[in-house]
Design goal:
Helices cover about 35% and strands about 25% of the residues. By secondary structure, it is of the alpha/beta class. A hairpin with a 4-residue loop joins strand 12 and strand 13.
């Protein structure tokens, strides 16, 4: 068994899906294929959800645009014998009925019920196309097998129950290819959940771990792990091999190649992860293993945008370590806010988090009951791994530094966002 994961960019149109089919023709043996929502569908569904939650009937027009986009992809794959629009029509009807007959109150819960349709649409259409093209394929609704708790938008996997269900379901499939959804799961009582934004990579790793896969291949629109984002810095270099540890560090720091949770399930069973280009399937890409990597001394530059720096100070100037530290982070946990960077001094705790307006407002309101809270919006975290003085200067020269952290191999800076030209 091998596990392939195709991201939204690789299946954004009919040509992309044909390319997916071509890649699968080169695969021998049983393959689990995990697919994300097409293109920018998740963003578009978030727009639908926001309007619907606010009582704005404009959500219908947004949904219509998504429907027409999917229909155009289906039309590009259909022929006289196979009309691939039927599956899409059925699922859009289900979502339309849900939105028309229900009023949402809990945003996180409704997010999972609505946004999850992106993966249902994409996998249904891809599976139908593969079947029409002569592949031995079966579509599986992962929500019935990948079982999670009910922490909506960031659900935790219930590993024992998931393993039992997934092994049984995949073992009884007689097909060579099993197409299923990334990003989504379900509770034991059948309520849809999601694993966190960009969580399809994590789904692939979960399946690989449970099914003892030979390898995982993540197909991207990049040639592998690069030492920087070429849209940000010039001179990007592909890293041929990196360790699990470095991959976790890079993903957590903001590298958008794979989801941060992807590595642990693979590391636990020493399953290699390959990052390859769907535009050039024969290229080598990057392999992530337990090895240290042959690009050991190449500096790696990572930028994490849309951050907020929050400083929490005891009103009476008492030390923050001890009880204050645990109380403050308990509030972060209760509000569902992940910490991307933390630095504590005698009388302050400085934290960088993703800017999520509603959750941040709730957090500050709660913390302000006991502490003084100050913050900076529009900041970025810049990370340099395998840093050298020259590498550091390359990314911070001329920037206003609000906070700095440094270890033997990694240095991080919180800086103000550069003004747009």
């Amino acid at each position: 068994m091998v596990v392939y994961k195709f991201g939204g960019a690789s299946v954004k149109d009919a040509n992309g899906i044909r390319n997916l089919a071509s890649i699968l023709r080169q695969t021998g043996g049983k393959t689990a294929v995990v697919i994300s929502a097409f293109g920018k569908t998740t963003n578009a569904l978030e727009k639908v959800l926001k309007a619907w939650m606010e009582g704005n009937n404009g959500y219908r027009e947004y949904l219509k645009e998504i429907y027409e986009y999917h229909q155009s992809v289906a039309a590009g794959l259909s022929d006289e014998k196979n009309n691939l629009r039927k599956g899409i029509d059925r699922l859009f009807a289900l979502l339309t009925e849900y939105l028309e007959t229900k009023k949402g109150e809990d945003y996180d819960y409704e997010y999972d019920q609505v946004v999850s349709f992106g993966e249902l649409w994409s996998t249904t259409l891809v599976a139908d196309y593969l079947l029409s093209a002569g592949h031995s394929v079966e579509w599986v609704d992962i929500r019935n097998y990948l079982i999670t708790d009910d922490r909506y938008r960031d659900a935790d996997v219930l590993w024992s129950e998931s393993a039992s269900r997934i092994r049984s379901r995949f073992a009884r499939s007689g097909k060579q290819i099993i197409v299923t959804q990334g990003f989504i799961g379900g509770t034991a009582i059948g309520t849809t959940t999601t694993l966190g934004r960009e969580g399809s990579d994590y789904t692939a790793a979960i399946l690989a771990n449970i099914l003892d896969a030979e390898k995982v291949v993540v197909w991207k629109d990049v040639p592998g792990f690069l030492n920087c984002d070429p849209k940000w810095l010039d001179g990007a270099v592909r890293l041929e091999e990196i360790s699990y540890k470095e991959a976790v560090e890079m993903s957590f720091s903001g590298a958008k190649v794979i989801h941060p949770k992807t590595i642990k399930p693979l590391h636990n069973k020493n399953i290699p992860l390959y990052i390859k280009s769907f535009l050039d399937p024969l290229s080598e890409g990057t392999v992530v293993t337990s090895a240290p990597g042959d690009a050991y001394n190449i500096p790696v530059f990572i930028r994490k945008e849309n951050q907020m720096l929050i400083s929490v100070l005891p009103i009476d100037f008492s030390f923050v370590m001890g009880d204050n530290l645990s109380l403050v982070f308990h509030v972060f946990m209760v509000q569902g806010i992940k910490v991307n960077l933390v630095q504590a001094s005698a009388v302050s705790i400085n934290v960088c988090v993703d800017y999520e307006p509603q959750r941040i407002r709730n957090l500050i309101e709660e913390l302000s009951k006991e502490y003084k809270v100050i913050y900076n919006e529009d900041v970025e975290i810049i990370t340099v791994m395998r840093h050298t003085p020259e590498a550091v200067q390359k990314v911070i020269s001329g920037r206003e530094i609000l906070l700095e952290q440094k270890t033997r191999r990694v240095v991080r800076f919180v800086v103000r966002k550069e003004p747009q030209n």
